[in-house]
Amino acid sequence: MAPVGEAAALVLVAVLWGSTGPFLRTGAAGLEEVRCQGRLQQLLAEIRFLGLNYKYMVPFLLNQGGSILFYLTLASADLSLAVPLCNSLALIVTLVTGRMLGEDFGGKRAVAGMLLTVLGVTLCVAGS
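Structure for Transmembrane protein 234, as requested:
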């Protein structure tokens, strides 16, 4: 895969991973009310609840599609660049998506910590 194609695939992975997290949390709302007797019955009831919930399954499948794309891209991409790039971009996309959905992300200190993490990763990647 060409370097531009690799970069585009990694950005797409980051968008898929980052944007689906807040939707997965929203889609799983109500899971804590699922109650059954016994551990196995509880597990099966929770799997059924999530598996039949399109608000959970659509983001889950998109997220897993991102994982498959990441796996395929790693065949030709530089691992020391792919992982920090995907994680940093996914963090930013998660923050933006969560904010758009009205999630509380911990205030200015949490955002500053995330941005400093992204800056640190960027410096490490740029130095290699």
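Residues 22 and 101 are 8 Å apart (CA to CA).
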